Amino acid sequence: MSRRTRLARAFCLSASIALVVVIVAEVVFFWGYLEEQRALALDYRWFVGIAGRWLETGQLFAARQLTGPYEVQTLVDFLYPPVALLLFVPFTWLPAFLWWLIPLGVFAGSIVLLRPARWTWPLILACIAWPHTISQILYGNTNMWVAAAVAAGVVWAWPSVLVLLKPSLLPFALVGINHRSWWLALGVLVLVSIPFGGLWPDYVTAMRNSDLGPFHALWTIPFFVAPLIAWVGRTRADRRGAPLVYSRIPWPRQSQMSTTSRPESSSER
Questions:
Q1: Nearest to 224 by CA among 139, 162, 138
Q2: Model pTM?
Q3: DSSP single-letter state for residue 265
Q4: 92, 46 Cβ separation under 8 angstroms
Q5: Which of 39, 44, 153, 256 has the smallest number of Cβ neighbours within 10 A?
Q6: What does the pLDDT look like over 47-60, one tens digit per residue?
Q7: Residue 3 domain-assigned (yes or no)
Q8: Are 186 and 206 in contact, with CB atoms under 8 Å apart?
Q9: Residue 165: strand pairing partners
Q10: Assigned domain for 134 exists
């Protein structure tokens, strides 16, 4: 191993450790601050409240959203497509910890499955250390579920369709669009959206009346970029010798590679 390689590996490791410390410090700080403001899990509680209101009254959008132009207010105006109720309604009876455990577990598990190269570690951790990422997790925002869908999408393609539950992040839903499973998942999403037919005109009206700009979610992007970085720097190959995410490259089967391939050295990781 060359001196340059050793220095690069040492830098990546040191930067990763430093960023982990930053993440822990941010969690401690934001946790204390949000707890003082009684804002821990605030978004989660609001989503469950919206689902409960819909179950009781059938009302999803506020009257002011349907009567004319309005200025969007956080935790007042519902801006999700009706099909998002399939995510919110189950949590009117599911234990709250699953709201965090499921998406964060999928997010972390998918990245680990990719086995990203060491040079990507600081970049991935920097995305997680982004203050808005930490705060959105502690608020219980749906961005956790979007990030999980993107992370699973770079591994299996079809889960990224679930990003469409938050249409403002549409570009991330296109991960895996060139795979059949993605289109099948899209078809399923369309089918399960049909029972909410009566709410779709209200959704279109509410979005048309809002003052929401196209770039309002720009500050949340680092959370969703992290799994893409892991995919770019992936080192894991499937049993056929092809990288994950269903590479279209006609890779030879493992048995055919035995005479020409060489094992990956630790310096290449």
A1: 162
A2: 0.85
A3: P
A4: no
A5: 256
A6: 999 999 999 999 99
A7: no
A8: no
A9: none
A10: yes
